[in-house]
UniProtKB/TrEMBL annotation:
Keywords: Cell membrane, Membrane, Transmembrane, Transmembrane helix, Transport. The chain crosses the membrane at residues 12-34, 54-74, 81-101, 107-128, 140-159, 171-197, 218-240, 260-278, 285-302, 308-331, 343-363, 369-391. This is MFS transporter. It comes from the Bacteria. The keyword Transmembrane applies. InterPro entries: MFS, MFS_dom, MFS_trans_sf. It is found in: Cell membrane. Belongs to the major facilitator superfamily. PROSITE patterns: MFS. It comes from Tigheibacillus jepli. The keyword Protein transport does not apply. Pfam families: MFS_1. Residues 16-395 form the Major facilitator superfamily (MFS) profile domain. It is a multi-pass membrane protein.
C-alpha cells in the first residue's frame, strides 16, 4: 500500500503538529528562561554582569554548533531521533545545575544544553515538509513557529515568577519535570518518518553549499541584518531586569518578568506581516518593521513604567515583523541550496542573540540604560540605510 503525506483531516497530522508544538514550547522556554534571572546570578554567585550573561550567550553558542552539526546528521540519520534527544538532553541539565554551587558548572551545562536544544530546530521543519501534505504544511509550520515565541515568553515569565516566590533552583526543577513530561508525550505519540531519505551527499558537498551563500553579497547583507536585529532586541531585554531593579523603580523579579508578556505581539505580528506583504511588498514592510522596532526601543528611555511597557510592546511588534520578513527574504534571495541558506540565517540570528547577551555588557556597564538604548535604537536603522546604499552600488555595477 502506497503511503500518502498526512493531510489536515488526518489524526496523524494533528499528532505531529501538537507534538512539535509542545516540543518547541519546551525547547524555547528552556533557552530563554535564564534571561530574567541574571540579576539573581550576579547576587548569588558573586559574578559580574558580563559573566552572568554567559548563561545565555554560551547556550546560544552551543545551539549554533548544534545546528551546524545536527543539521548534517539529521539529513543522514533521520528526524524523530534528534527531536526526542533534544528534549531529553535539554531536560537533564535542569536536574543537575541546582546540585552544584559553582557558576562555572552551570555555564558548562548550559553550553551542553544549547547543543542538545539544537536537535529540534535542526530536524523539525524538514520532518514537517517530508511528512505533511504540501497544501496543509503551512498550518503545522505556523503552529510550530508560534510555539517558539510562546515558549520563550512563558519560560521567561514562569522562571521569574517561581524564582521570586521560591528560588532559581525551584524554577529549574519545574522546567526539568516539564521537559520529562513533554519527552514522554513525544516518545509515545510522534509518528515515525515515512518519507525520510538519507542524504548520500558527501560532507564536502554539503559544506560547499554553505560556502556558496557566503560568496553572495546580497545574502551576506541579509544575514548581517539578522545579527543586527537580534543584537538590538536581545540587548534591551537582557539588561532590562538590571534597569528596572534599580532606582527609581525597584521592581520585583516577578513584576519584571511580566514585561515579557509583550512578546505576545510577536505571535500576532509575524502572521499579519506575512499577510500584508502581498499588498504592500516585503521590503517596504520590513523597513517599516525596523523603524517601529527603533521607535519602541527609544520609548523605553522614558521615566514612566507605563511608557516603558508601551515601548517594549511596540519594539516586539517591530522586531517580529522585521525578523519574519527578513527570514522570508532569504529564500527569495538565494538562487540555489535554499535550505542551507535558511540554516545560515538561523545561525546568524542566534549569533545576534549571543552578542546581545554578552557583547552588549560593556555598553551597559559604561553607558547605562540610556547608552544601551541609544546604541540599540540607532544600530538597525543605520544598518538598513547603509544596506540600501550598498545594494544601489551593486545594481549600478551590474549594469
Amino acid at each position: 500500500m502506497e503511503h500518502k503525506p498526512y493531510a489536515i483531516k488526518s489524526a496523524y497530522f494533528w499528532k505531529i503538529s501538537w507534538c512539535l508544538a509542545l516540543a518547541s514550547f519546551f525547547i524555547f522556554a528552556s533557552l530563554y528562561a535564564v534571561q530574567p534571572l541574571l540579576p539573581v546570578f550576579v547576587e548569588e554567585f558573586h559574578v559580574t554582569v558580563s559573566t552572568a550573561s554567559l548563561s545565555m550567550s554560551l547556550t546560544i553558542i552551543g545551539l549554533i554548533i548544534g545546528l551546524l552539526l545536527l543539521g548534517f546528521l539529521s539529513d543522514r540519520k533521520g528526524r524523530t531521533i534528534f527531536i526526542k534527544l533534544a528534549l531529553l538532553g535539554s531536560a537533564i541539565p535542569f536536574f543537575i545545575m541546582p546540585l552544584f554551587p559553582s557558576f562555572t558548572v552551570l555555564l558548562v551545562l548550559r553550553f551542553l544544553q544549547g547543543i542538545a536544544l539544537a536537535g529540534l530546530p535542526a530536524a523539525a521543519l524538514a520532518y514537517l515538509s517530508e511528512e505533511m501534505d504540501s497544501r496543509n504544511v503551512g498550518v503545522a509550520t505556523a503552529l510550530y513557529i508560534s510555539s517558539n515565541a510562546l515558549g520563550g515568553m512563558v519560560g521567561r515569565v514562569a522562571a521569574g515568577y517561581i524564582t521570586d516566590r521560591f528560588s532559581w533552583e525551584a524554577a529549574f526543577y519545574v522546567l526539568a519535570f516539564l521537559g520529562v513530561v513533554v519527552f514522554l508525550a513525544v516518545l509515545l505519540l510522534l509518528p515515525a518518518s515515512r518519507f525520510f531519505t538519507p542524504s548520500r551527499l558527501s560532507l564536502r558537498k554539503d559544506f560547499s553549499g554553505f560556502l556558496y551563500h557566503l560568496k553572495n553579497p546580497a545574502l551576506l547583507l541579509v544575514f548581517g541584518l539578522g545579527i543586527i536585529l537580534q543584537f538590538s532586541f536581545t540587548g534591551i531585554w537582557t539588561y532590562l531586569p538590571f534597569h528596572l531593579q534599580g532606582e527609581p523603580y525597584s521592581l520585583s523579579l516577578q513584576a519584571i518578568s511580566n514585561m515579557f508578556f509583550a512578546y505576545g505581539l510577536g505571535v500576532i505580528g509575524s502572521p499579519v506581516a506575512g499577510w500584508l506583504t502581498g499588498k504592500f511588498g516585503l521590503r517596504k514592510l520590513r523597513l517599516l518593521g525596523i523603524f517601529v522596532l527603533a521607535a519602541g526601543i527609544f520609548m523605553t528611555m522614558a521615566a514612566s513604567i507605563v511608557m516603558i511597557v508601551i515601548g517594549l510592546c511596540i519594539a516586539c511588534l517591530g522586531f517580529f515583523t522585521a525578523h519574519s520578513l527578513t527570514a522570508t527574504s532569504v529564500s527569495e534571495t538565494a538562487t540555489h541550496h535554499k535550505g542551507s541558506a535558511s540554516s545560515l540565517y538561523l545561525v546568524a540570528y542566534y549569533i545576534g542573540v549571543s552578542f546581545g547577551s554578552t557583547a552588549a555588557a560593556p555598553i551597559w556597564e559604561n553607558g547605562g540604560w540610556i547608552g544601551l538604548v541609544s546604541f540599540a535604537g540607532v544600530l538597525p536603522v543605520a544598518y538598513i540605510l547603509l544596506t540600501q546604499l550598498v545594494l544601489k552600488k551593486m545594481k549600478k555595477r551590474a549594469y
